[in-house]
Amino acid sequence: MSNSNDNSIVWDFNLPADQSDDEEVGLSNNTNTIVSPTAPRPLTRAEVLSYFEQQSNGYKCKLCEKVYKAAKNSDSNLRKHLSSSHQISNVLYKSQINGHSKSISTTISSDRKDELHNAAINCVIEDGLPFDTFGRPGMSKFLSTAVPGYVGPNRKTVRKQIATSYSLYTKKLRALMPKLDFIALTSDLWKSSNQVHFISLTAHTFTHHYEHVSIVLGFRRIIGPHSSTLIENYIQYELDRLGIQPQQIISITTDNGSNMKKAAATLRFGNPISCMAHNLNLVVSKGLCLWSEPKQDNFPLEITLDLDEWQDIGGDLDYSTDTIEYDESSIDAAADFVSEEEDNVNNDGETDISRMINIESDGDDDIDVQFSSLVLNDKSSSFIDHYELLKNVFELMKKSRLIVKFMRNHNITNEYIKKYMLSKNKGRKTDGLILDMVIRWNSSYLLLDRLHKHKDVIHNICAFPNSIIGLTDQQMKRLNELILNEHEWELICCLKNVLEPFFDATEALSGQNYPTMALSFYVFRLLLHYFESTSKDDKITAALKQSLRYWFNIQCKAKLPAGQIEIMMVAAFLDPAFYRKMNDSDRKSAKKLIFKKLDKTNNSHPTSSSLLTSPSPPTTTTGKRNALEKLAAVCGYTISLATTTKQCMSVDEEISCYIKAAQTSNDFKEFWTTNSKQLPRLASLVRR
């Protein structure tokens, strides 16, 4: 019997099955001396293999029936399984014992491991992370602290799981898509930063409760020429593999690339729709010459065109493509590197610029801007040469980009601006200067807006560079060359003001959680109203709006696919939130179009005579509401309300019934969920 002294020690060993407890420890009754037993030997290979049944694909455990692989002359994997899963003693080699003893206390269940693996893989997918994210040293240390015993999925596991998830997703789509009544498609083609081209195809539909749903049908890399035939074949391939029939497809929306437009124009995928957000970007780029120098042969502009005529106004200009010939020096000016703290995308949509150009290499020709032909404050002037004005805009944009480049790329001026703005705003941080990009919508507006907000500090730096410690003589000379005069600042202000409605319109049209067809018609009308409202504009602003209106007529009217304006108008009429914002003329036109559409169907469609439910006006989607309210305010637009009419249930009167119910509703989904049975003809048209 061991002594009760606290110095006594008892060793506990895991014994083989054939070893008795009597052999565990031998202790003297009279002393506290430990008698060291002989270390138990690990099971032999034959003894380990006795727990398994050899198969062609590995070794099947007789205890749990799981199959494990083992090298020809190694059974370490099998020993580890017996020890960790079945707690069989004396199977581990000496080299395995230390690591195994540490992991016993932190082992997690297989269900918990699967749960964590799925969460990690979903994180990789949603955030676009590298496949080996959870296997990197720093992440591994974090996981060992946060979830002891858990080892994140390696690259192969992530790749395999994503492939499995994709296969399951495809199977679900094949079962779902043929059951949908109507589908609208969108397709886009773009190039990544490493010059790889991709194409995507997305379907849009409504649930039974009129909730907008977007479904990704395909996302693939394109190799070879991006011809319209290749694009058309790709779209058809995705539709065929998912079992989508031609009669289900209502329309396809694309950008203005000639290859995309040609593929959509075949009418194999429903009515072609031109993306209005892309169109507005072209209106701004061409109408203000932000990136390309105006050509005198294209002037004067035909600014007396009737805005309500849907006619081709191309004239002698070449509009075969919607690409812009960008000035190389302008692109170079905007493609310089940015400061380290702004390398990542921020809330304003900035993105890092990869091309690195030395600011000192820009020649003096880039900033030789003359404004002799432009007199902003000449109230007696009744005419402004659009060509000279837009040429000044083009040169001013080049100069503005050079200023932003210099301020951002030199730490001395960058820090000076930050300290100045903090002091001016009583310690509150403000958004810094940014560069615009050809492919980044609204970035030119943001450049001008930020530049205008920094007017005081920019002027101080350029006018008095010797007051800033650390600048070289060459840098001070450069700043003096970049100084903006008062006329230039006024032009910047005018440009910023005319771009603001396009900024708000693009923000509203870029929503992902609500349909935008009806919204696009409302935006269309708001911008037309903005162009026509010139009574309070100065001469420069009025001239800029005339140029924008000219290109708006081309890009957003004359060059739209046949019938797109009508489709937008009907969509706005059938959305209670926008019906009340339509004028009487548009309502009448929309009613005629709906009659024409419904005349092709059975006019005796049974309709309930019960009163329609008019739900209380809920709050519209926040992002859409804020952007639209701001756009309407900038455009000086007031909303008119429709008059109520008597409710009846013929085709004509079903429309009248809708009009009455739409007066007190402001939510598309709730309205049609509630009233679809009472308005079956219109409800069917809505889904199309």
TrEMBL record:
Skewed-composition ranges (Low complexity): 606-622
Which SMART domains does this chain map to? ZnF_BED
InterPro entries, per database record: RNaseH-like_sf, Znf_BED, ZnF_BED_domain_contain
The protein's name is BED-type domain-containing protein
Q: What SUPFAM superfamilies does the record point to?
A: Hermes dimerisation domain, Ribonuclease H-like
Task: Extract the PANTHER family matched here.
Answer: ZINC FINGER BED DOMAIN-CONTAINING PROTEIN 39, ZINC FINGER BED DOMAIN-CONTAINING PROTEIN 4
What is the annotated localization of this protein?
A: Nucleus
Note the superkingdom of the native organism: Eukaryota
Q: Give the UniProt entry's GO cellular component terms.
A: nucleus
GO terms for molecular function, please? Answer: DNA binding; zinc ion binding
Broad class of the protein's primary localization: nucleus
Q: Which residues form the BED-type domain?
A: 43-86
Region of interest (Disordered), ranges = 600-623
Protein source organism? Rotaria sordida
Q: Which PROSITE patterns match?
A: ZF_BED
Q: Which UniProt keywords apply?
A: Metal-binding, Nucleus, Transcription, Transcription regulation, Zinc, Zinc-finger
